[in-house]
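Journal club prep, shared notes

We agreed each person brings one worked example of a sequence with its structure written out as tokens. Mine is Rpn family recombination-promoting nuclease/putative transposase. I'm keeping it raw so we can talk through how to read the token line rather than staring at a rendered picture. Sequence first:
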Amino acid sequence: MAHILKACTEEFKDCDLQDIAQRYIQGEPSISRIAVEPEAISPRIESEQTEDKSGTEGTVYYDIRFHAVAPIDGKRIQLIINLEAQNDFNPGYPLLKRAVYYCGRMISSQYGTVFVKSHYEKIQKVYSIWICTMPTKKWEYNISSYQLIEKHLIGHTQAEWSHYDLINIVLVCLGSKSHKQLKGILRLLNMLLLDNISSQEKQKLLEKEFDVTMTPHLEKGVAAMCNLSEGIERRGELRGRKLGEEVGEKRGELRGRKIGEKIGQERGEKTGRKALSVLLQKLMQEGRKEDVDRVLQDDEYQEQLLREYHLK
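Then the structure, token by token:
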């Protein structure tokens, strides 16, 4: 997360990575535990809101949400950061509008937790950072930022920037390359989320290339980060499909190894991918993050859980 903040936020771009990780990120990140949708407002001063659910809508959770403090002009300002891993770049609505809604919810939900009555001066800036694993071709390997700006229609009087600099959306788009072809944050995220290598190999790369000292706690975090999206599975199938077209029944990658042939492609997409996707979602909802990592690496264990959940 420190690398993401340094690469994607104005507040942390000049900060040392160790300082970001150890001094500026506050508390434990909430992973798929804080809901997005609204509920009736009730006083919750200084308590982290764990579920904002509407009685008429299903609960949708932020992938990751956490607090951070940023050193600005000798002062520390409070930030709320949301990280989302998004596979479907065109889900039937503009993705940026969903990001705007998430930011709006993070602003409005501060009433009763950060401020009450008319103390709007206490509103904290929010970031919603979207890591898109499968964007369209023209968006591949782009990082774009969207925020409020001041535009003068008549006159030139300027407001204090911090009074309206409260919402920032960042789209981080990955793609079909290997991490070895990339640099910086794109290299790191591509390796973590998309490259078909084991969690252990990723940990070694984090230590060697990004100066990350691995701890048991961080190892679990790597496993969770690896499985936030289904990009691993879906990209593996695309690769396997291409190999299947070229070499027929030769072993491809993961469940995509036989999808290359037309019949195998249709069968694999309708059965294996759908069943595995449902299984991974159920495991993440139940908090079984270690089992998610094991399922992606151990075919026998994957088969066992598919049968237990009656998905096969």
